[in-house]
Sequence to fold (78 residues):
Amino acid sequence: MKCTRCDYTAAVASFRYLYNARIDDSVALRQCPGCEEWLAVDELAGETLQSVGPGEAPWGKSAGIEGLAGEAGQPEDE
Ligand SMILES: [Zn+2]
Fold:
């Protein structure tokens, strides 16, 4: 995969793993070791999807976990 900001290119494992963005998809957040940019990564394809700024959720946050939690009748802070 390749950093979209500084063009650092390396295996996915070389990028620091942060967390899984979605429970129902292979998208994870990783951090570039070169410029520390946060990147959304397709873990299965090993491809960078896009860079992610603080607070952004370009993968469709509201369509995932929150909806399931609401249906279960266990409202949390989010
Ligand atoms: Zn970078």
